[in-house]
Each structure stands twice: as C-alpha cells, then as structure tokens.
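Q: I'm writing a short explainer about SnoaL-like domain-containing protein for a general audience and would like to include a description of its predicted shape. Could you first generate the structure from this sequence?
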Amino acid sequence: MADDSRLRERSAREVLDDHLRLSDERRFDDDIARNCAPDCVVLTGRGVYRGHDGLRTLARALAEEVPSGVWQYPTRLAEGRMAFIEWTVESDEAIVNDGADSFVIENGLIVYQTIHYTVLDRSGRVIVRADGTRPG
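A: Of course. Here's the predicted structure. Afterward I'll give you a sentence or two in plain language.
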C-alpha cells in the first residue's frame, strides 16, 4: 500500500468511490488490498465469508457469473461509517438488476459488507439465485 496513513484517514465516501473504481477496472486484488480490512466479514445469501480470501472467492464467483458488462450504480450513499449501493449490470451473457451492497467502514477500510444479487439470462430467467444456487 502506497501511503497507509493516508488510506486510514479516508471517509466512507472515499473508500466507496475507490472500491467502485477498482472494481469497474476489474482490479479485484488491488481493491481488496487497499479497501478491505484483513479480517473483514461479508454476509451474503451464499453464507458468511471472512478475510481477503473470502473476498477473492466472492469476486471470482461474480466474475464467472457476469464475465463482462457495463456496471451502473443508480444509488450511492455514504453517511458516517456506513455506505450503500444499488447496482445493475448487463452483458451479452447475463443481467443483474437487483444488486445491493452495504458497507461498514472504519479507519479507511471496509470491515463489514453485505452483498445481494440475482443473475438472469437475457430472457429474464434466473441463472444464479441470490444464495448462489442454480435452478434445475
């Protein structure tokens, strides 16, 4: 990390913006190293994921389920140590129109996060449920 003391002083908004920028650039390892506490906890319909390894597992799953596309963030909120986004993505292979993440940010790092999304095919049929299971 470049200037660790500067990163620790960032507001929730600054962390959120950096997280989204690096995610959009598909720089998941850089995002995790810069923006997430080593002992972070992520709650999803798929279960509880811990630490940087848990985040990498989730990032790989999302990259496999939606390998390309344009990400939109119609809602980006940050207040105090909390942040929240709603997101969508559409690609040739898949659509997500119900993405929502929340964050608790302390000392310039994400310490807790929730993630929710459902992956649909181009005709609107569910490919991957929010709990990570696949129909049929």
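A: For your explainer, you could say: DSSP finds four helices and eight strands in the chain.
Q: Perfect, that's easy to follow.
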